[in-house]
Design brief:
80% helix, mainly alpha, Tetracycline Repressor, domain 2
Length: 203
């Protein structure tokens, strides 16, 4: 097999990086439209209009609406996972893990509730449209990994049924996030108390 010359490799790497950067830029604009309108009510034309992008530009970088939405959800959840990971790294000991994990979850609900709404929308769609199932499964495995890391960091052995702990935490997170949008809203202190009570039970 003939190896690509270093100069061509470097050129290809720059081109790929530029393309990836543009895709991410488009996706960040598209997320604003998606989190406002939701999956079912958003076409590529809607995204183009709200993002000040041409329909041709969207089609150039993404095969279809599903391809774009999968990419959007992936980059958003990457940031969510990264923020939770950073919070856990700062914590030493069970009390600190509960405090830092709780603070990160509450901050994410307050700052990104509409983006979380898009995630739950897509996760529900995955039950009907298998196109979304691989990315939803991949993201949920990362989130389960975060919960497992929190349990271990708190000084305990991760249980065999760690998925149950994740499901409990996810259910509470979704409920509180939903209330931020549709009401009744809870204060940050109230949400903090709810998460601390729950995390204290399985950490």
């Amino acid at each position: 097999m003939i190896e690509m010359p270093a100069k061509l490799k470097a050129r290809k790497a720059r081109k790929d990086a530029k393309r990836d950067g543009k895709k991410r830029q488009i996706a960040e604009s598209a997320i604003e439209a998606l989190k406002e309108l939701g999956y079912a009510n958003t076409s590529l034309r809607d995204i183009a209009d709200k993002s000040d992008l041409s329909l041709g530009m969207l089609h150039y970088y993404f095969e279809d609406r599903s391809d774009l939405i999968i990419y959007c959800v992936s980059i958003y959840k990457e940031e969510f996972v990264r923020n939770l990971t950073v919070a856990l790294k700062k914590a030493e000991g069970r009390d600190a893990v509960i405090r830092e994990f709780t603070n990160a979850l509450v901050a994410s609900i307050v700052n990104d509730e509409m983006t979380h709404r898009l995630w739950y929308d897509i996760r529900t769609q995955a039950m009907f449209d298998e196109t979304f199932r691989p990315v939803v499964s991949e993201i949920e495995m990362k989130l389960i990994g975060i919960v497992r890391a929190a349990v271990i960091k708190a000084g305990d052995k991760a249980p065999d049924n760690i998925e149950l702990s994740y499901a409990l935490l996810d259910g509470v997170f979704r409920y509180l996030m939903q209330n931020q949008i549709a009401g009744p809203k809870l204060t940050c202190d109230q949400m903090t108390a709810v998460f601390r009570a729950l995390l204290t039970k399985f950490l």
